[in-house]
Automatic annotation (TrEMBL):
Originating species: Ferrimonas marina
Designated name of the protein: Uncharacterized protein
Length: 126
């Protein structure tokens, strides 16, 4: 299931079979969402081809996991830009912020996919 979550956001993602081995060797099993967030934390997600979008101020009801951890540098560049949202090449719309994510459980800067309802709201603004 976690692989489907990853592929929905990044259809071309390659998931190393050893990642499954790592998951099975963990003392405490991860949920599918946690496994996807851990994979994203280890991947280098490129948002250079994302389309900037405007919309209402993001709120927590708009967000759904898995979140995609990003570097502080990328986070700062997104903060300096005007758009609050970006549409990834896969069609998934994300915003950005800080949240606790699997694999670290400390606050991390991340991209946060929107729910289907929130996606409709943001697209209506375009």
């Amino acid at each position: 299931m976690y692989k489907r979550m990853i592929k929905k956001i990044l259809p071309s993602a390659w998931i190393d079979p050893y990642f499954d081995v790592e998951l099975k060797q963990r003392e405490t099993p991860l949920t599918d969402i946690e496994a996807a967030e851990l994979w994203f934390a280890q991947a280098d997600v490129n948002v250079k081809r994302a389309t900037p979008l405007l919309g209402p101020e993001p709120t927590t009801w708009m967000l759904k996991r898995p979140y995609i951890p990003i570097s502080e540098t990328l986070f700062k560049s997104l903060l300096e830009a005007k758009p609050d949202y970006y549409q990834l090449p896969s069609g998934v719309i994300v915003t950005f912020g800080e949240a606790n994510v699997a694999g670290d459980w400390r606050k991390a800067t991340c991209l946060m996919p929107l729910t289907a309802d929130a996606t409709e709201v943001v697209l209506a603004w375009q």
